[in-house]
């Protein structure tokens, strides 16, 4: 700068300035490398041990030109994948990029263990047990109080004759299940896959990729789907050393495949896996890495949030409408905006005939949806994770990512606190409502209490929910008041009878009544009903006395308005 100001700029000065600037981006070999002595001085690790690690992970360039290494790197035959250390002629070394070392440690050392025979078998067994135990621990955080069955065996039909007879007591084929989690009316089937992508797959060999993904994803889907089909077909499982397990009360089944290998860009591309024939459209488990599963279960505040994510994440339309490079991006978008896809109103109407014909606005809202790319949302998560993991000064002040405020979350928590039957599925159903609808629903109890019936009878309001085109997803929510002086047992019996009769009338499989005491204005009880099938004579008469089904209007989770008929219904 001084030379320029004095008019003395010449080629020598310009070259000096240029080389100084370029040295920032192109350091000398000594500046870009370290020696074994440098590492020993910094870490206090003996030089012999440092040398042994260097020799295990160094890339031998003695007989390979650098240009060949670069060509191999850019065409998928990455020689740095298992040996990422470059060593100069004078013994100084460099790690080209820190992202390389995580996979290198695993692949390099596993390759060595495979040469040791019995040691490799021990290691593979340990790896599987580690995956099972950590999956169990992670899911225990979001399914408190659930009945877990881990690493068990059960029976399925061995042939067509046994399948047609449909008598579980006579099934002869014994198969394994990794985890079965049952909480009231919800069952979650989990398969653990500790196998990893091979070096050929990581190098981009298509046929090997298909083979490896079949072993990780397709096999897990088939195994979890087999158990799901058995529960749906037989209403339970015949479990080895336990006998018949009655699961006839299950109304919701989810399947999960947990991978020890972190292949997030593959696991989030569910629609592509279906197109490639690796998954069937009618059997889509949530495929997730162990790392992401553990982190997601730590972020969840209420278990109902996790169940709602399972419902949304396993929706085939979600994988078509939302694209993300990472599972955590999808989950954080769920926290932020719900991960909701508008269902086809024509199919919804076919599933729930009491609904009116779709309006032009309904059809337009559905048809104008376009796929969206979910970009990175993990900055806040990264900050919280590293503050917690490394014990930095911000560990106590860095906020953990949280779901957008939900007005009905306090009610969901109250149901959980009082261990109401079906609290998990009820809570997820409440949280599925759009926030405006949640705010209205949160006031329904007060609205009824503020307007008592002059005749001295209780008040009631019913809200059917039809979130999708599957009849099994339908719910009936009802708010009922208990007048002062009325017998609580009689009121409960009447409320339960009304709920079951109204569900039957509308063809909805599940429902819940929220009963409020007019004297105390408190929630006196919440009564779940998952009964399906015929009614007794008394309730059949009740159905005939109900207002017609066409008098009700449904709300789907993204509804912006209350029901058209906002009056309380008996």
**On the 0-100 scale, what is the average pLDDT?**
89
Please work out how many helical segments DSSP would assign.
26
CA-based shape: elongated
β-strand percent reads 15-25%
* Helix share, percent: 40-55%
Strand order of the largest sheet: 3-4-5-8-9
CA radius of gyration: 30 Å
Give the helix/strand class.
Answer: alpha/beta
Instruction: Flag low-confidence runs.
Output: 559-570
What composes the largest sheet? 5 strands, mixed
Alpha-carbon distance between the termini? Answer: 87 Å
User: What is the number of beta strands?
Assistant: 15
What oligomeric state do the depicted chains represent? single chain
What would you say this structure looks like, in words?
This protein is of the alpha/beta class and 570 residues long. The protein is 46% helix and 15% strand. The chain contains 26 helices and 15 strands. A 5-stranded mixed beta sheet has the order 3-4-5-8-9, with helices on both faces. A 4-stranded mixed beta sheet has the order 12-13-14-15, sandwiched between helices. Strand 1 and strand 2 form a beta hairpin. Helix 15 crosses helix 22 and helix 21 runs antiparallel to helix 22. The longest helix has 29 residues. The chain is elongated, with a radius of gyration of 30 Å. The chain starts with a helix and ends in a 25-residue tail after the last helix. The C terminus is likely disordered.
């Amino acid at each position: 700068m001084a030379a320029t100001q004095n008019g003395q700029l010449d080629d020598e000065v310009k070259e000096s300035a240029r080389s100084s600037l370029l040295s920032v981006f192109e350091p000398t070999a000594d500046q870009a490398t370290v020696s074994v002595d440098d590492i020993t001085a910094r870490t206090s690790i003996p030089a012999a041990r440092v040398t042994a690690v260097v020799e295990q992970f160094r890339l031998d360039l003695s007989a390979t030109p650098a240009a060949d290494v670069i060509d191999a790197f850019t065409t998928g035959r990455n020689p740095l994948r298992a040996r990422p250390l470059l060593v100069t002629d004078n013994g100084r070394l460099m790690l080209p990029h820190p992202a390389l070392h995580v996979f290198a440690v695993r692949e390099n050392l596993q390759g060595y263990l495979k040469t040791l025979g019995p040691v490799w078998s021990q290691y593979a067994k340990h790896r599987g047990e580690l995956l099972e135990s950590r999956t169990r621990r992670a899911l225990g955080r979001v399914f408190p109080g659930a009945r877990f069955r881990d690493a068990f065996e059960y029976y399925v039909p061995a042939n067509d004759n046994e399948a047609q007879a449909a008598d579980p007591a006579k099934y002869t084929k014994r198969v394994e299940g990794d985890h079965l989690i049952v909480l009231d009316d919800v069952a979650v089937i989990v398969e653990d896959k500790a196998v990893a992508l091979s070096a050929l797959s990581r190098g981009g060999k298509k046929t090997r990729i298909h083979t490896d993904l079949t072993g990780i994803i397709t096999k897990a889907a088939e195994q979890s789907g087999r158990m799901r089909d058995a529960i749906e077909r037989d209403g339970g499982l015949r479990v080895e050393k336990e006998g018949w397990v009655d699961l006839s009360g299950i109304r919701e089944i989810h399947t999960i495949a947990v991978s020890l290998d972190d292949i997030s860009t593959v696991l989030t591309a569910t629609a592509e896996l279906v197109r490639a024939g690796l998954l069937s459209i009618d059997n889509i488990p949530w495929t997730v890495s162990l790392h992401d599963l553990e982190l997601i279960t730590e972020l969840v505040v209420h278990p109902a949030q996790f169940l709602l994510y399972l419902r949304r994440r396993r929706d085939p339309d979600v994988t078509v409408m939302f694209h993300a490079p990472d599972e955590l991006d999808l989950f954080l978008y769920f926290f932020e905006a719900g991960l909701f896809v508008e269902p086809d109103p024509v199919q919804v109407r076919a599933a729930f005939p009491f609904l009116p014909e779709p309006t032009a606005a309904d059809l337009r809202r559905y048809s104008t949806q376009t796929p969206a790319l979910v970009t990175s949302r993990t900055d806040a998560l990264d900050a919280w994770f590293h503050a917690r993991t490394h014990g930095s000064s911000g560990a106590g002040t860095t906020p953990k990512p949280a779901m957008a405020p939900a007005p009905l979350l306090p009610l969901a928590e109250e149901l959980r606190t009082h261990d109401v039957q079906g609290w998990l599925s009820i809570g997820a159903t409440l949280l599925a409502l759009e926030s405006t609808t949640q705010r209205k629903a949160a006031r329904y109890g007060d609205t009824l209490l503020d307007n008592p019936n002059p005749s001295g009878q209780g008040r009631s309001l019913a809200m059917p929910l039809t979130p999708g085109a599957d009849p099994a997803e339908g719910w009936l929510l009802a708010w009922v008041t208990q007048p002062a002086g009325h017998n609580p047992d009689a009121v409960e019996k009447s409320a339960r009878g009304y709920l079951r009769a109204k569900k039957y009338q509308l063809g909805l499989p599940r429902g819940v009544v929220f009963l409020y005491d007019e004297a105390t204005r408190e929630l006196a009880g919440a009564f779940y009903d998952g009964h399906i099938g015929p009614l007794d004579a008394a309730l059949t008469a009740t159905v005939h006395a109900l207002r017609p089904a066409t008098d009700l209007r449904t709300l789907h989770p993204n509804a912006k308005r209350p029901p058209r008929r906002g009056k309380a219904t008996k």
